[in-house]
Design a protein that fits this description.
This protein is an alpha/beta fold. The chain folds into 2 domains: 19-61, no CATH class; 74-146, Ribosomal Protein L15, Chain: K, domain 2. It has helices at residues 57-60, 79-85, 94-99, 131-139; strands at 74-78, 91-92, 109-113, 123-126, 128-129, 143-146. The longest helix has 9 residues, at 131-139.
Length: 161
């Protein structure tokens, strides 16, 4: 394959298929729909999971568990990763972690875990810290700053009389 063959045959602005314009067009009479049948009719549409009447795969597979769509998404970072990526005396914030690809994706809260060793004096800002992480940060002479997190919404809370 040559480099100039890579885009061969790709049409950026493809012309639309003109249907029902005579047999010379190649799309006349039945307009590429064949003869009779459900798919030849106007307004035909099918559900994405339809498998010709067979029990669809999405219904054959058992449902397991519960997915809480309102649960807090917690990103985790280990002290060993901070040891490798930051210099002594550095300030570690969620924004800095995101820029260094340590806290990836969308999350509600950031938690620092105590996996690995910490010898550098770091000022770490996060929403949560594990007990072992706090001990290791303080032992290294660093500082752990707890950021305010999102408060969970409590519904149907009745006032005490």
């Amino acid at each position: 394959m040559n480099l100039n063959d890579v885009h061969h045959g790709i049409q950026k602005n493809k012309k639309r298929k003109r249907l029902g314009r005579g047999i010379g067009s190649g799309h006349g009479k039945t307009c590429g729909r064949g003869h009779k049948g459900q798919r030849s009719r106007a307004g035909y549409s099918v559900h994405p999971t339809f498998e010709g009447g067979q029990m669809p795969l999405v219904r054959r597979i058992p449902k397991r568990g519960f997915n809480n769509r309102w649960a807090q998404v917690v990103a985790i970072v280990n002290l060993g990763e901070l040891e490798n990526r930051f210099d002594d005396g550095a300030e570690v914030t969620p924004e800095v972690l995101k820029s260094k690809n340590l806290a990836k994706g969308r999350y509600d809260e950031l938690k620092v875990l105590g996996e690995g060793e910490l010898t550098k004096k770091l000022k770490i800002s996060a929403h949560r810290f594990s007990r072992s992480a706090l001990e290791k940060i303080q032992k290294a002479g660093g500082e752990a700053v707890v950021l305010p997190g999102k408060k969970p919404v409590v519904k149907n809370k009745q006032k005490a009389k």
